[in-house]
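Support reply, case 0932

Customer input (verbatim):
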Amino acid sequence: MSFNVVRSKRTEFCDWLKQNEPTMNGLVPQGWTYRGTYSTKFSSSANEYLMLWEISRFQSLDGFPQSGKEGFQIAFGEFTSFLENKPQWIFYEPAHNIS
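Our regenerated output:
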């Protein structure tokens, strides 16, 4: 997912990310794997951050983020409080799977 953080909250967001990132995979819904959050340096996108997730199957999308373990909804709510815009979700599939 790509997104922007409110300019005045960027330092607070980075601090929040440092604190919460190590435990993220322990809280995510079944079938989800957190792969990291990155700031973009060069992009044609208007968004400045990219949060990468891996899902095991499309059914894993059902109920996100409510389907996460206890604490995930709180962490996801805290995360969204830093956002300037609604995150853009993009789903990729390995190119070798396309026929």
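We compared this against your earlier run and they match. Two observations from our side: The beta strands are 2-3, 32-39, 49-55. The domain at 2-97 is CATH 3.30.70 (Alpha-Beta Plaits). Please reopen the case if you see a mismatch on your end.
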